[in-house]
Amino acid sequence: MMGADQSRSVRSVWTAIATVASVQLAVLGYIVFDRVRLLSAGREIVLDVVPVDPRSLFRGDYVILSYDISRISSALLEGKLAKGAPLFVTIAQDAADKWNVVRVAAELVVSAMPEAGTAPAAKQVVMKARSDAWRSAATGDRTEPIFARYGIESYFVPEGQGLELEQLVGEKKIKAVVAVGRDGTAALKGLMVDGKLVYREPLI
Amino acid sequence: MWGYQGRIERDLDRWRDAGWLTPEGDARIRAELALRRPRYGLSGALAVLGAVLLGFAAMSFVAANWQEMSKLARFMLLFASIIAAYGAAGALFVRGLTSFAHAALLLGVALFGASIMLIAQMYHMDGNPPDVVLVWAGGALLTGAALGSNPALSAAMLLTCLWTGWEVALTSEVHWLFLPVWAAVTAAMAWREWSAGLLLAGGAISVWIVALGYLLSDGHAHQLVTLLGLTILAAGAVLVQRPLHLPLQPPVIVGFGMAIAFAGSLALQFVEVVSTGRLIVLSALTLAALLAAIYWGFRTGMRNVLWLGYTGFSIEVLALYFKTIGTLMGSSLFFLVTGLLVILLAAVAFRLHERQEAAGGGLS
After folding, report:
1. Strand partners, A128
2. pLDDT digits (tens, 9 = 90+) for B287-328
3. Half-sphere exposure of A153 (CA within 13 A, CB side)
4. In a domain, B154, yes or no
5. Is the CB of B123 less than 8 angstroms away from the CB of A35?
6. DSSP per residue over A86-152, as a string?
7. Is A154 touching B (CB cutoff 8 A)?
8. What distance in Å separates residue A15's CA from the closest CA in chain B?
9. Is B4 within a domain?
10. Searching chain B, which residue's CA lies closest to the CA of residue A131?
């Protein structure tokens, strides 16, 4: 005896189920879309790195990548920083094609924004970073260096291969291929050893 | 709840045997008790635990970063599993197998989390890890609120706590954003009148408040914690007097207030550096408050207040013993004086009790 009430409640259960599932799938889809867009349209730069190997709580083995541009002199910091606010780090390429930090600020400098397909002549890129620099900025202390995190510090490798990768790069010099978006967000595209691309991630 | 069921059933047997209860009254009371039994039996509980295990299987699968399957294939597999879990939940609801349906919903929530982790791994995303947990908590809250799922709501609460704990561990700052998210999950629990969930919510906010003492004013805000605890306690005490229908029993609110105030007071006495005089004043006040709570628990029959009072008393006395008041002789003197005072109180209580008995009062 399936009355009108019952069929309505059955319908509402399915409506709720469909809503929940589609919202969650849409969230996942959006995260993927956002990344793919950044990786394909972002400005590509190559950074020098120093890796070490730990293991992520949730996501398996990974190699921690630390960059030359991760440690910044506080003297380069311009203006004040709000608590917990992101940092915008302007980096410039020198004659040896190495990227160095030239400016750190609390706002994005539009003129130095990376553009998709920009000619390498534009030798500056702004990268968004997180750091606890606002603590020293608040006290006016400009002696401690700033440790900036760009969100490209973890490179995930198949279980057990983290050490292998680390050994591989132990003697040789490793570089990271990074895509930087219009808002300064960075994403890892792959790793280079001795100028050769050893890992390149497919978009999906 | 189970303890209460067992106790009342034993009492019913006794009352019926004594002839105080008619067989009809006995049957009616037992019928009402049967209605109050938890709706999820053993099978439902096992199904939920099974879903938790499957969720961990999915997370470990992601963590293994298995290369035999392409990223895209792994991603599609998780996508399909989410659809399958929610689809199964719908089918089980329609068939009236609600406890299994809730287990399937919980699995859907777990797979949603595993998928976020997989995406983070696929793209080597290393932003702010707690953000991932917040998105996951949001998904769990959506499932819990839209489908009236208690297991999903408890997952949302636990994930909210994980999110805040992680943020605090990274920044050593008070995580204020905990409050709106906690309030949203708690509101969903209160709307469903789910008292066990509200206990979890109460525990979560209590820990958050106690942590304020260690995070605000360079870690010296325990007075504020004690004050907040006493305020919650007072609010609960006011509610105890009112015959309001609340999803969370007022004595439980009183209990949380007591626990918070006591945690703050313990930190004031034993975490902070205090002079002997201040320690004596603070500990005397704490002991007096705990004795008052024990008395109040006895008077009103609020068992949780009574037991929290006993537990607090034991912790306080042990902590004082280890801390030492000035010298060991000082401690000895303190315990002697307080011991004599408490025995004096016992004698007063006994007299009062006798007088009430004589006057025909029924307080015990």
Report:
1. A88
2. 999 999 988 888 888 888 989 998 998 889 888 888 877 778
3. 22
4. no
5. yes
6. -EEEEEEE-TTS-EEEEEEESS--GGG---TT--TT--EEEEEEB-SHHHHHHHT--SSPEE-B-S-
7. yes
8. 9
9. yes
10. B171
Token reading at A101: 């930090």
**Chain A residues whose beta carbon lies within 8 Å of the beta carbon of residue B144:** none
Structure tokens at B235: 């609010």
What is the average pLDDT across B269-280? Answer: 88
CB atoms within 10 A of CB B66: 13
Contact yes or no for B63 and A19 at CB 8 A: no
**DSSP SS3 for A197:** strand
Distance in Å, alpha carbon of A141 to nearest chain B alpha carbon? 19
Residue B13 lies in a domain: yes
Q: How far apart are CA B109 and CA B89, in angstroms?
A: 12
Torsion angle of C-alpha atoms A149, A155, A161, A167, degrees rounded to 10 = -60
Could you tell me what percent of chain B has a pLDDT over 90?
Answer: 41
Does residue A117 carry a pLDDT above 60? no
B238 contacts: CB under 8 Å, gap ≥ 6: none
pLDDT on residue A2: 47
B contacts of A56 (beta carbons < 8 Å): 63
CB A103 within 8 A of CB A141: no
| pLDDT score, position A145 | 80
Tally of structural domains, chain B: 1
Q: What is the pLDDT of residues B112-171, one digit of tens each?
A: 999 998 888 888 887 777 888 999 999 999 999 999 999 999 999 999 999 999 999 888
Q: Answer with the residue of higher pLDDT: A167 or B184.
A: B184
The encoded tokens of residue A185 equal 């967000």
Mean pLDDT over A82-86 rounds to 72
Show which of residues 86-125 on chain A sit within 8 Å of chain B, judged by CB atoms: none
Residue A172 in tokens: 């040789």
- Cβ distance B65 to A158 less than 8 Å, yes or no, reads yes
Asked whether the predicted pLDDT for residue B88 surpasses 80, the reply is yes
Q: Is B321 helix (H, G, I), strand (E, B) or coil?
A: helix
Query: How many other CB atoms sit within 10 Å of the CB of residue A142?
Result: 13
Chain B residue numbers touching A202 (CB-CB < 8 A): 71-72
Whether the pLDDT of residue A84 is over 70: the answer is: no
B113 versus B44: the higher-pLDDT residue is: B113
In this structure, of A146-155, B122-131, B183-192, the range with the lowest mean pLDDT score is: B122-131
Domain ranges, residue B14 = 1-32
Closest chain B residue to the Cα of A161, Cα to Cα = B65
Distance between CA atoms of residues A42 and A38, nearest Å: 5
Rounded Cα–Cα distance for residues A71 and A48 (Å): 13
Asked whether B116 and A28 are in contact (CB, 8 A), the reply is yes
Cβ-nearest to A58 among B59, B108, B123: B59
Nearest to A128 by CA among A48, A42, A28: A42
**Structural domain contains residue B27:** yes
Instruction: Please list every residue in chain A whose beta carbon sits closer than 8 Å to the beta carbon of residue B87.
Output: 17, 21
Task: Please identify which residue in the block is written with the tokens 């050994």.
Answer: A167
